[in-house]
Amino acid sequence: MRKAFIKKLVELAEKDPRIHLLTGDLGFFVVEPFADRFPDRFINAGVAEQNMMGMATGMAESGLIPFVYSIATFATLRPYEFIRNGPVLHNLPVKIVGIGGGVEYSHHGPTHFGLDDVGALRVQPGLSIITPCDSQQLSAALEKTWDAPGPAYYRLSKNEGVTVPGLDGRFAIGKIDLITHGQDALIIAMGNAAPEAAKAERTLAQNGINATVALVSSISPCPVEPLIESISRHRHVFTVEAHYINGGLGSMVSEVIAENGLNARLSRIAVRKNPHGSVGSEQFLYERLGISAQSIADTVVSCLNLATR
Amino acid sequence: MTATQRVKPALNPEKFATEIRRLVLLESKRAGVGHIGSSLSIADMIGLLYSSVLNISEPGDPERDRFILSKGHAVLAVYAALHLKGFITRDELGTFCNDGTSLCGHPEIGVPGIDFATGSLGMGLSFGVGCAVAARKTNSSRKTFVLVSDAELNEGSLWESVLFAGHHKLSNLVVLVDQNGQQALGYTKDVMDTSSVENKFKAFNWDVHVVDGHDCTQMRDTIDKLDFQSGAPHVLVCRTTFGKGVSFMHNKIEWHYLPMTEEQYEQAMTEINSSDA
């Protein structure tokens, strides 16, 4: 998704000289197309994320549109208070780009995981949170949101070449995307968990369970009405995210269910424990942490079986 | 307030600073709040900047110079200056710390003339770095001034900004350090010694000037000679006296916090008025 991001950013920057790219000394073999095309609009801010975020705030106040690029946790949690007191408090168009949410930095270990970024940022008013599910959708999301007046957080997968079947590059703020339609369960997935959710749906279908899969790429603003509409049609709802259990998609859907008096049983499929101690590939971690396609399918089957007893 | 109602300041920097001190005493007494010593410490710097350095004809002018009070707790001195500039009315200044006011105890956006909300120390310089970078990227001659406290130098994030600005030679950026030697719970030499701040900035490739933070002529002469077109970013290490102008507040830790009693207010105002005689 990183290459698609840079390709689209270069395209947008051709049209608007306000766009600048700041990186916290990351993006080898990623940022070069922008840096080569617009050397005066590219800043390697060094390994100093707090200054980078504050600097982006000052640049945005001065009329520019800075994109701030780093690994998800370094782009969000290290400069968190700078985000709060900077672009959020001043409502400035600083565009934060976090790479590798969840456990995509796999063997790099837990210091590089982004399991709490969405939860931490979702509490900030006026900050758009966009979690594209594949590269095509990312391009559409950037096209539709890059010049919005307020701040935004784009949580991008570092995996390239992922395409979620049925999504076809659709994106709209405050909406969800239904890629399958089934009456037995509703599986709601966020961003880079979408491929696992889609695979789980196939597995379930082969076992006679038909699920609707809804993808959420607009976390803030929350797609309240579309969620109500889909949840209202199902008795069993599952959320899937590469994120800690609290604060992210599952919490958001819980709020929608509770605040709107919806009659649905929710099971949150997310990371429930500190991931230290045993790392490996992303797929290994998905299995270990219970967010792989098989884990999702198993959870759905288990919950449906319990409900029919 | 409309543009035609605004008055250009006719006061010289010293008179401007004295008026700031009077307003700081008046409004902090009326509101019953502290941070008086910190505001008095920077009154001369603020008086100089707003009377004769900052190029700000209108608060919303995109080509205005930027000023960021990174030590936001001393904002009453800036509100007073904004009133003397004609950006906020006397009635508005009189709402300081009232219910429903936007003039709170730390700078808040929405107040005409306040560019950035500050108060969490160690952030203001990064905002200023961004303003300076943006001015350079857009070929603008506007300058950015950031006032930080010596206690604020405790913040690691500030040194990220110092390192960046030195490396990128942001010559359109000026930092003023209010070196009054105090912080909330003690003297800086006892908490985290920042007495050699000029050497630290030199090591980060800044253009360093040590001045008397209460001598407007010396500060003005120094700023007049700065090269804003090329070379290093500039820092004026301003040696100041905490609570300057009110003898019983001088270098006393408690005046970071305390509001004044009636008697203290009378004495303080008498001292400020006599200095202006």
Structure description:
The complex is a heterodimer of chains A (309) and B (277). Chain A is α/β, with parallel strands linked by helices. Chain A has two domains: 2-156, Rossmann fold (3-Layer(aba) Sandwich); 177-308, Rossmann fold (3-Layer(aba) Sandwich), CATH 3.40.50. Chain A is built from twelve helices and twelve strands. Chain A has a seven-stranded mixed beta sheet with strand order 2-1-3-4-6-5-10, sandwiched between helices. In chain A, helix 1 packs parallel to helix 7 and helix 3 (49-61) packs parallel to helix 5 (80-90). Chain A starts with a helix and ends with a helix. Chain B is an alpha/beta fold. Chain B has a single domain (10-275), classed as Thiamin diphosphate (ThDP)-binding fold, Pyr/PP domains (Rossmann fold), CATH 3.40.50. Chain B contains eleven helices and seven strands. In chain B, strands 1-2-3-7-6 form a five-stranded parallel beta sheet, sandwiched between helices. A two-stranded antiparallel ribbon of chain B has the order 4-5. In chain B, helix 1 crosses helix 3 (43-53) and helix 1 (13-31) packs antiparallel against helix 11. Chain B is globular, with a radius of gyration of 18 Å. Mean pLDDT of chain B is 94; it is low at 1-5. The A-B interface holds A 20, 40-41, 43, 45-46, 48, 50-51, 53-64, 66, 81-82, 85-86, 89-90 and B 62, 66, 109, 115-118, 120, 122-123, 125-135, 137-138, 144, 156-157, 160-161, 163-164, 167.
